[in-house]
Amino acid sequence: MTSTAFRDRDELRAALDTWLSSHRPPDLDHSPVARFEQLRQWQRTLNEGGWLGFGWPEEFGGRAGVWAEQAAVYAQLALRGAPTPVGIIGLQTVGPALIEHGTRDQHEKYLRRILSADDIWCQGFSEPGAGSDLASLRTVAKKTGDGYVITGQKVWTSWAQYADLCAVLARTGTQDERHRGLSYLVMPITSVGVEVRPIEQLNGESEFNELFLDSVAVPTDAIIGTEGGGWRVALSTLDFERAGYAISRHADLAVAFDDFLADLPAPSSLPLAELGWAAIELETLRAVSASAGEALEAGNIGARSAYYKMVTSQLEQSIAAHMLAMTEYSPIDWATHGDGLAVAQNSYATSRSATIHGGTVQVLGGVIAEHVLGLPRAR
Ligand SMILES: Cc1cc2nc3c(=O)[nH]c(=O)nc-3n(C[C@H](O)[C@H](O)[C@H](O)COP(=O)(O)OP(=O)(O)OC[C@H]3O[C@@H](n4cnc5c(N)ncnc54)[C@H](O)[C@@H]3O)c2cc1C
């Protein structure tokens, strides 16, 4: 375990509270673009305060400590109503994969800028015909004299409209080679030939985008890992994505649950079975989250991240469903009791995607069966 400035998590939380008392989080703007810039600035402030990069190489802007301390920072920020960092894909997903597979020059080039929010990253893996079966993807990176030219289409690329860089998984080999023919490339989103089209959701927001890539030139050192070795880098990116979600989701849901209950009359006016189950499942989620943190800290989470992600996503959906059921089966006049109804509805709607992003629950079941339990591969 790496040394850290804090004796224990309580000391870390107290220090963050003290810091927050003199560093006010922004009042977020209604416009998504303005809000994003406020959040970028807030991440910068957090980084300058020393609250990001726990366990990252210190020579590239990281700080001593372990992942679980970073998770404790995110949890405490959520508890205090302060936004967590907006560059979460870089911090939690792509960054750790770069640390594992990138060269020293790539660490120098990218890591510091991830922490400071100078570079916001997105992840260009999924395609219209390749989600769960990622190894069948068709975006091509063709080798040229001094780099690669990328052509193809990506979809569901979260936050690409605000991103600076995209981690693109593309085919440098043949279609028949499947995962052995893939490479992992860094592509600036403002490159000539990149078109980002936001997908408008039912709630009017646009988390996702389509990416159209038309002969986008990137240099040779855009490859992370080796040419044709992109699958390994993609798998560790997904491991970190799944583990990061499992570690951080408990805090967000616990805060939502507190908000849900905040302005209600006595709990006896709520359906008690639903209330009880929600509380039990939140406690279970706390234990799952802590266990995922320990596994990550021990440096051997690997395919077990699929297990933590699967359990977390199912608990998230169940807790949100209990909250929604409480709004349906209680005599409370929700219009006169704060934000409880909105919190329940929003948590429920958000939770539906939990069993899809970062690998669907069915696909994770296959990963767990094969790579954690050692069962024969499904035909
Ligand atoms: C909130 C959110 C954010 C996302 N962000 C990103 C992002 O930033 N970048 C990115 O690249 N992608 C992103 N995605 C896409 C995500 O990775 C895919 O949606 C996911 O991998 C599933 O692929 P698909 O949607 O094509 O579904 P499909 O693969 O078509 O699956 C459809 C159904 O078939 C089932 N199925 C498929 N194969 C099997 C199998 N072998 N065994 C059993 N069942 C199977 C699936 O479980 C699912 O129920 C995001 C998705 C969501 C919901």
Low-pLDDT regions: none
Radius of gyration: 21 Å
Bound molecules: flavin-adenine dinucleotide
What is the overall pLDDT average? Answer: 94
Element string (H = helix, E = strand): HHHHHEEEEEEEEHHHHH
Strand content: 5-15%
What spatial form do the alpha-carbon principal axes imply? globular
What's the N-to-C terminus distance? Answer: 41 Å
Count of runs of 4 or more consecutive helical residues: 10
Q: How many strands appear in the DSSP assignment? A: 8
> Given the helix and strand composition, which structural class is it?
alpha+beta
Instruction: Name the helicity range.
Output: 40-55%
The major beta sheet can be summarized as: 4 strands, mixed
Strand numbers in spatial order across the main sheet: 1-4-5-8
Brief write-up:
By secondary structure, the protein is of the alpha+beta class. 47% of the residues lie in helices and 13% in strands. The mean pLDDT is 94.
